[in-house]
Write a structure and sequence with these properties.
Blueprint: E1 8-13, H1 22-39, E2 43-46, H2 58-66, E3 73-80, H3 86-100, E4 104-109, H4 116-123, H5 135-146, E5 155-157, E6 160-162, E7 178-180, H6 184-192, E8 196-199, E9 202-204, H7 220-234, E10 240-242, E11 246-248, H8 254-267, E12 280-282, E13 286-288, H9 290-298, E14 308-312, H10 319-336
Parallel strand pairs: 1-2, 1-14, 2-3, 3-4, 4-7, 7-8, 8-10, 10-14, 11-13
Antiparallel strand pairs: 5-6, 9-12
Length: 346
Amino acid sequence: MSGLALQRLGFLTIGTFDRDDPAAGHETTLQMIELGERLGYDSAWVRHRHLQYGVSSPVALIAAATQRTSRIELGTAVIPLGWENPLRLAEDLATVDLLSGGRLNPGVSVGPPMRWEDVRDALYPETADVEDFSPGRLRRLLDLIAGEPASPFSGTAGFEVFSERVEPHSPGLRQRMWYGGGSTASVRRGAELGMNLLTSNVIQAEEAGRPATEGGAWDFGAVQAAQIDTYHAIRPEGRVSQGLVVVPTDSATAEQRERYRAYGEARTPRTGTPQGPRGMLFARDLVGTSEEIAERLRSDAGFQWVEEVVFALPFAFRAEDYEQILTDVATRLAPLLGWKPADSGD
């Protein structure tokens, strides 16, 4: 357990947009990242969504953000590798990292694409039955980013010069790769591969948080703390970031506070017991004043193990809601937890 003040503050957005006017939603997301830099946030992260009304190409959006910011770190949380060709993704990540001046923090996960049976024919029409969605796909990506050979040939062929590795190569990017882990097995995998750990508000139910009595609520924080402990036992020098949904109401209007509380109450029933065939646990969203949220975080077993957080913005809120939440987190909540804003350069 760190026992230290919060050192690094980030936020995560899904980047929602309207089907008939997608450009406006993408612009709003870029403006939120710019606001985050002005408020002193250490990082801004973009969630990944395919065939939905959220950012489907976070690397492309982050490329735009690199030209509108100068300091804030930019991350993906997370890119599901089942949708990606590791070599092409390595090229894109290295390119954007160079454009950012070394500020990119790619987060990834493994496994088959979501709704695989629905998308397989469009995604891999000729190779669906032989695609490898195992951790081997991740290892290929990491090796290519590190500069391992992608081809046996390098040299000149006619007027063209070829490299044996992925180009461009961005030194240091390999050390900024993150793994989205929600179970002890996945957390261990990320640590053994030398990756940093993204742990979120959705994890797999495991023995550490099992209720003592039948019908009791599972302890999400206990499960998360045990997973973080497993990670640090393997890779003590690695970075761990916790992602929770927090909605401070300090400067919110009465109408906003009513909507926020209704949102939190509607999502509460899914907490406390494992959900679905994989037994996933959901953390309770924290809605209230900064003082109330800070008190609840200090008693959260998972939060007690981390020195950096990436607070997730709720889905389907308005642009003015996000501005209020980001501002209250940076100016009221995070300072209560010991965080100090980064130099905005102003």
